[in-house]
Amino acid sequence: MYVIKARNAQQALPEVLRQLKIHGRERDSRNGKVLMFPGPCVVQVARPTERVVFWPQRDANPFFHLLEALWMLAGRNDVEYPASIVPTMARFSDDGLTFNGAYGHRWRKWFGRDQLLSIGQALKENPDDRRQVMSMWDGHHDPKMAESGSKDVPCNTHVYFSRDSSGALDMTVCNRSNDLVWGALGANTVHFSVMQEFIAGVIGCRVGTYTQFSNNMHLYTELHGKLIEELIEYTEIQMFDRTPSGSTKAAYNDPYHVGTAQPTPLINGDPMVFLREVEMMLSEGKVIGIQDKFLRRVAIPIQNAIYMYKGHDAPNKFDQARRCLSDIEETNDWRIAGEQWIDRRENNWRNKNGQ
């Protein structure tokens, strides 16, 4: 088993890539050649609320990651909303209308109870409870869907929760087969850390560690093989020289570590009000009537920015998106990542068009 510990996903990504380069084995998969760990891989993050990956080589889409996480908290499984941000998401639906394995729908509706609220309440009443398990895999339904060739069978199957000696909420996510770049340290680290922070809000405690167990951790070599070489310089043993501040290069390139980026707390009041207002934001896209601080000051500007970007032609769409992001505090992690994402696309557009 391979165990990798890091402060956050930003620092974990190059380290996991380094370990994969050393220990990985090439295998075939449904989607082409992969480089995979020859045994299970565990990644443990000490500060899961520092959930944004800023590496330009990775080019993560912060708009989609945050908004999809909120879509999950709302318990939805519709194709329409995520596809309005990333149209290719529709390819993972079997019927073009819903997703079979939508995590949020499994969290809140699929099994006939709201697992987010019931687990949070149980751990609030009994901090020593060790029986709180969230299910995403349906043992009756999902094997049939897999046999039928469904495009969307849950990769993350179960989540275990417990509170540490200080009362903080620790969480372990179990995954049957995980793409390292798009999944494990891409979208999943955002989705599940947001869920963890929400349940901590229901309990009224701090967020503890986030541990992800992947039975099959892999990387698609044709798609992401170059990423190993582009980030490996920050994690090769001979490159672990120290910066003037005494930190490694991987840490030095972490905006959280150097203090230029800060996460904004997700829950600032009643978690039930937060859930209702998340659904309002996703369904109506309006600020009117929404009181939650995180939604008003972070999520809604993020949503507005990506819709302005998608709704205008270049070069206007770059400034239109930035104008929306300017409503967020300058040190907010989502604003910084959003501006960098926009900047990369504007630079590419200008280079392509000779400007």
Query: What's the shape?
Result: globular
Which value, in Å, is the CA radius of gyration? Answer: 20 Å
Q: What would you give as the CATH superfamily of the largest domain?
A: Thymidylate synthase/dCMP hydroxymethylase domain
Low-confidence stretches: 237-247
> Number of domains in the coordinates?
2
Helical amount:
40-55%
Write down how many β-strands occur, each being a DSSP E stretch of 2 or more residues. 10
Q: Could you give the distance between the termini?
A: 50 Å
CATH architecture of the largest domain: 2-Layer Sandwich
Mean pLDDT: 93
The top level CATH class name of the largest domain = Alpha Beta
What string, H for helix and E for strand, traces the elements in order? EHEEEHHHHEHEEEHEEHHHHHHH
Report on the biggest sheet.
6 strands, mixed
Strand order of the largest sheet: 1-4-9-7-6-5
Number of helices: 14
CATH fold annotation of the largest domain: Thymidylate Synthase, Chain A
The oligomerization state is: single chain
Question: Topology, please?
Answer:
Blueprint: E1 2-6, H1 9-23, E2 25-27, E3 34-36, E4 41-45, H2 62-73, H3 80-85, H4 103-110, H5 115-125, E5 133-135, H6 142-147, E6 156-163, E7 169-175, E8 178-179, H7 180-203, E9 207-214, E10 217-220, H8 221-231, H9 249-252, H10 255-258, H11 271-284, H12 293-311, H13 316-325, H14 333-352
Parallel strand pairs: 1-4, 7-9, 8-10
Antiparallel strand pairs: 2-3, 3-10, 4-9, 5-6, 6-7
Helix pairs in contact: 1-7, 2-4, 2-7, 2-11, 5-7, 12-13, 13-14
What do these coordinates show?
By secondary structure, this protein is of the alpha/beta class. 46% of the residues lie in helices and 14% in strands. It is built from 14 helices and 10 strands. The strands form 2 sheets. A 6-stranded mixed beta sheet has the order 1-4-9-7-6-5, covered by helices on one side. Strands 2-3-10-8 form a 4-stranded mixed beta sheet. The radius of gyration is 20 Å and the shape is globular.
